[in-house]
Amino acid sequence: MSQRTKTYLLHGGLFLVTLITTTMAGAEWMFGRLFIPIEKMKTLGWEEFVAGFQFSIPFLAILTVHEFGHYFTAKANKVRVTLPYYIPLWLGIGQSIGTLGAFIRIKDYINSRKKYFDIGIAGPLAGFALALVVLWYGFTHLPPPEYIFTIHPEYQKWGLDYGQYAYRNLPPGGAVGLGDNLLFNFFKTYVADPARVPHPYEMIHYPYLMAGYLALFFTSLNLIPIGQLDGGHILYALIGRDLYRWVAPALFIVFAFYAGLGLFKPSDFAVPTNEAFFSELGSFGLYVGFLYLAFSRISENRMTSWLITLSVVATQLVFSWIQPQWEGYSGFLVFVFVLGRFLGIYHPETELQEPLDAKRKILGWLALVVFVLCFSLKPFLVT
């Protein structure tokens, strides 16, 4: 067997496994049950698995179009790249989407701002275009509002006013909802029949809405204009190396500040016992250490990293003291850590610093508009 055949089998095998895991995860979101038997819950079977393709096919189609946008543009620029590697991940206990995404590996050194721009922008714009189609289809083909009773028959006692009662006494994490962004809100408001739009905590049961929303979510993450993310490539090419060295770390600091805003408040330390105080203080110390690890590569000087970390934490506490109701989204902290420690805040240097032409500049700023349209301050709502 040739090496090329082995390579095709590897990429094809990963895709097929990912198709299976995303189908299983999609079915679990759709029906609110699991494939693994647990006490007092009916398990999912073959019929539900087949229904899960309504999620996996559009979701993987968007992901695939995104990656092949990078792939074909890299080939056009004579940059050697691999086929997409799909990463399957099914937890079996719910709360997963069946994959950690996909990536292509660039085998060549890219020496040009233009090449970075072309390769970086092709993926998110291609995937975004297909995401619009999926969202349009999902919102124009919503089932009658009574459909939710097939998933939650216990809601029938409240009728279509279930949203006022169903979530009152749920335990923490008992319901997961899709947040909002400008584009998703546009589809809900101006494309869909308002009478058929489900409650935010029930949209996870609608596979096309779920697939389209996740596509917007991951598009926005990819377009964050920091480091080696697609948005980082785009902004680096737009504004150049010298300015990007200042803009990228500033944006990263703002992102980290928002993610942790409200996680700790001065009032949290006003506790009745010493034991509770030291427990809160220990948690706060772990958070400060976590942020330092995320900021540790923002500068070669450790003291600078510590000063940035402590400044961010102090400013968060001041904001929380002035406006206790202001809160960020702590779910972003994981991505802050991955970005700061692994993906990088800065952009690789390029030998050629040629400016972009007018067409590329327009596309670049359009991509940043797409980022704004797709980005959600609170992408997932959890009771």
From TrEMBL:
It comes from the Bacteria. The keyword Cell inner membrane does not apply. It is found in: Membrane. Its cofactor is Zn(2+). GO terms for cellular component: membrane. It is a multi-pass membrane protein. Pfam families: Peptidase_M50. Keywords: Hydrolase, Membrane, Protease, Transit peptide, Transmembrane, Transmembrane helix. Residues 55-240 form the Peptidase M50 domain. The chain crosses the membrane at residues 12-32, 44-65, 85-104, 116-139, 206-225, 246-264, 276-295, 304-322, 328-346, 362-381. One of its GO terms (biological process) is proteolysis. InterPro entries: EGY1-like (IPR044838), Peptidase_M50 (IPR008915). GO terms for molecular function: peptidase activity. Belongs to the peptidase M50B family. This is Site-2 protease family protein. It comes from Spirosoma aureum.
